[in-house]
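Supplementary Methods. Inverse-folding protocol.

Structures were first reduced to a discrete structure-token string of length 344. This string, shown here, constituted the complete conditioning input.
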């Protein structure tokens, strides 16, 4: 079968690799119908620190079950399924607490197992991870279902851990796919003011489609201070009730604390906190967020997509074939596409 292989910085190829096969009784083999390119993949492609180092790539996919192990009880060949980006055993204390993302036996596709940017994937603990969906390979909702595997689940995780309430104000720092989906989730939660701060005018426009009520284009060396002033002005000087940080760097995290109201919540989604967290102590700010337990959110999200009440699929602005996946990475690296869908 074919799969995307990362050899080093900007060295991505599509090659023949051994077929995905069952290795344990709880496994399933899933033929990939659609996959996504994520910002995490892009970090690896650009040679930046992060979990994706190669050789396999991709952790977002929707596909069809091809084979199942002898202990798999809820799935059968022919079923269309949605997979979370991080798999888990479903039985440990972390999984039982609703945090499969912290499962010691789990991992991330493309990092700890087969990559999703391929023709097929072996899925460990299939019963605990895969969610069956009653759609076919030509369903127009496939892109929205694919968005649930990571970015939409992550946006929802920020809103849920931040306890966004009806009438609240939310500031989202970062106009990438997670920032967009956080704005959408905040709108769904009833937030009154959703302020999206980013560096790309076109993305900010899409952010308004996803629910942002106010947008700020941050440019130049003074952008951090200007962003702080903008959010404070939009919230009558108080600061936002909830701030979703999607940038993943110390400057963005420091900005998040600066634009959060005293007693508010900062949801760190870009990377573990590496900036100054003293506001947690002195200003009573709650620190939330963290690695998304995507599987915990999938049933509700899938139900809403199938019911037609949630449609995040427009986050994918370009579609490429697996053989042409390099072009998908290139347009994301050039920031001319927010997110790219891949069809094997």
């Amino acid at each position: 079968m074919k799969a995307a292989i990362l050899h080093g910085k900007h060295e991505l190829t599509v090659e023949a690799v051994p077929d995905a096969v069952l290795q344990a009784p709880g496994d399933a083999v899933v033929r990939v119908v659609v996959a996504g390119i994520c910002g995490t993949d892009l970090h690896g492609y650009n040679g930046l620190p992060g979990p994706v180092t190669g050789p396999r790539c991709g952790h977002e996919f929707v596909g069809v079950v091809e084979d199942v192990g002898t202990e798999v009880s809820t799935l059968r060949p022919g079923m269309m399924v949605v997979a979370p980006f991080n798999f888990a055993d479903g039985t440990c204390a972390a999984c039982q607490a609703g945090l499969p993302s912290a499962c010691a036996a789990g991992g991330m596709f493309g990092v700890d197992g087969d990559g999703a940017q391929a023709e097929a994937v072996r899925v460990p603990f299939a019963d605990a991870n895969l969610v069956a969906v009653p759609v076919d390979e030509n369903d127009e909702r496939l892109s929205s279902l694919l968005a649930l595997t990571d970015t939409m689940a992550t946006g929802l995780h920020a809103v849920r851990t931040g306890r966004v309430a009806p009438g609240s104000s939310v500031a989202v720092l970062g106009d990438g796919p997670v920032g967009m989906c956080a704005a959408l989730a905040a709108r769904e939660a009833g937030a009154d003011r959703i302020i999206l701060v980013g560096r790309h005018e076109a993305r900010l426009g899409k952010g308004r489609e996803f629910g942002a009520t106010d947008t700020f284009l941050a440019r130049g060396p003074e952008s951090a201070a200007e962003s702080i002033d903008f959010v404070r002005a939009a919230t009558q000087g108080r600061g936002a009730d909830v701030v979703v940080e999607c940038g993943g760097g110390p400057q963005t995290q420091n900005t998040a604390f600066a634009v959060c109201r005293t007693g508010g919540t900062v949801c760190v989604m870009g990377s573990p906190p590496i900036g100054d967290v003293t506001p947690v102590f002195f200003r009573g700010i709650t620190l939330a967020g963290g690695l998304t337990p995507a599987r915990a959110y999938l049933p509700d999200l899938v139900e809403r997509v199938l019911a037609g009440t949630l449609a995040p699929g427009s986050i994918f602005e370009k579609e490429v074939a697996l053989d042409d996946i390099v072009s998908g990475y290139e347009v994301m690296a050039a920031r001319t596409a927010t997110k790219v869908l891949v069809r094997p």
